[in-house]
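FORM 7B: Structural annotation worksheet

SECTION A. Query
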Amino acid sequence: MQDDTERLSKTFWDVELKSLNDGLPKARKSLSELLNEDRPSYRNVKDEEIFLGKKELQELAKLVPQGKLPDVSLPIVVLKEGGSSKGAFQIQGSELDVKIVNNALKKSSDDRTFYKPEILELVKEFPSLIVFGYRF
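SECTION B. Predicted structure
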């Protein structure tokens, strides 16, 4: 009986987590590719087309070292991990992706961990470029 309850609970949480992460991108695109699109967009896990703000992309591009636009991938994926400290989020992606987020927040570090006030500032600055996910 205990095993059935545990199995049912695990199934419930697996389904719930999948639902929470439906907004994550199927694949991220390079900043240079997005800047060249008339209507920049990506497809999420639910196969919906999500549009990104052209002006936000242009502002983010100003933070990228010359020649590195093809190496920055979007959208910016912010993960909340179960068991992480309260209000702590992780930025997913390459070292350059993380560096650009730190630059956007005027932080001198290259840390992947950000806290709620920083994430709120990032969302305020680049609302269409951010997507949230959850991992337990």
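SECTION C. Observations
Residues 2-135 form one domain. The chain has one domain: 2-135.

SECTION D. Sign-off
Analyst initials: ____
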